[in-house]
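fyi for ur records
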Amino acid sequence: MSESRSSGFTLIEILVVLMIVSIMSGIVIANMPSLTRSADFEAEVKRLQIVMELAREEALMQSNEFGFRVDRNSAGQLSAYSFYIYDDLNQSWVSYEVSPLQPRELPEGIEMRLTVEGEAFSLDGDSGGDADGEESQGLPPVMLLSSGETTPFDLTIFQGRDLSVTLRSDGYTRIEKVDLNED
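which gave:
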């Protein structure tokens, strides 16, 4: 009598492999929020850089003066921003509500810090707002002029302690992205 043994995997071997694959999948999925956080952060940084450059070009093309201001969101964090246009008739700054330059809040956890001409910009009464902190008629800290010039600034966008990127303008050239994590 000859015994014929078929080749293949036993049920136990298949179950062990499936268990290892499911454990590895669980580890990858558990780390996914950090991957999406990074992707959301990079998307917002790129969007803000493009929108600021667009506002700079709009000022040049329309022969209008534009302004940019970092605002507090509904939770009180510095994670919102607005563009303004100078109204020559009323000689005041008005919020620019035209897409894509309309006011915007960044996703939760992403914040900004604005440094204008080497000095930190504050919303706490030092920036020309009235007693209520309302600054809609005051001078925006960053000017995007019809001559193509901008106010020199560093706009640092950060998420937690791990992610940080600075958008920088020297006042004459394009707004550039400086990744502070690569130091």
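The domain at 38-182 is CATH 3.55.40.10 (minor pseudopilin epsh fold). thats all i got for now
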